[in-house]
Request: fold
Amino acid sequence: MTTIQGKVVMPGMASPTTPDPPVPRLPVVGTTWYRRGVRYWLRRASIALFILLFTAFFCFIAFSLYQGFRSALPPWLRPYWDWAEIAATCVTLPWGWIAARRQYRKEIADPPTPEDAWRIKRERARRGRSLAVTGRALLIIAAPVMPAFAGFFVAQMICAVTVPRYPSELGALKAMAAAAAQRTP
Reply:
């Protein structure tokens, strides 16, 4: 195999061919998504573990805030409030799952290109900083219904961890297929 003017020439071939395009690097999974080998699944498992720990911490904070609010209620009202909170949480769990699955289906219908995936990641990181400051004040206000918020959040996180492929992976596959189609005469 030799290279002539940047093109690969295989022995016995009459004309040079262009090399395959490089595998694009994606947010979170890097280039491991292409082969989906051990490194990919280790990365997915570590992401799932991080999300599990973060979700457990969020639920701890949510129930601590709720417990603080609950202690301010009159004793006769607490059982009724608890049952209302259980009912609200039973509604928000499937609601969070359905909302996350709809969002996933929408994203895989029109997956982002690798460049768009990086842009979206930067925008979410930028937006996340401002929401973190705003969210602290809202947590205190939302203390009466924090278990319901926690149920919605848990369902969203479980859905995010259990998807078969990230939308950015599908977008990268689509971009690679388009690049390969452009190379083919």
Residues 1-9 have pLDDT under 50 and may be disordered. The helical segments are 38-71, 78-109, 114-141, 146-161, 167-183.
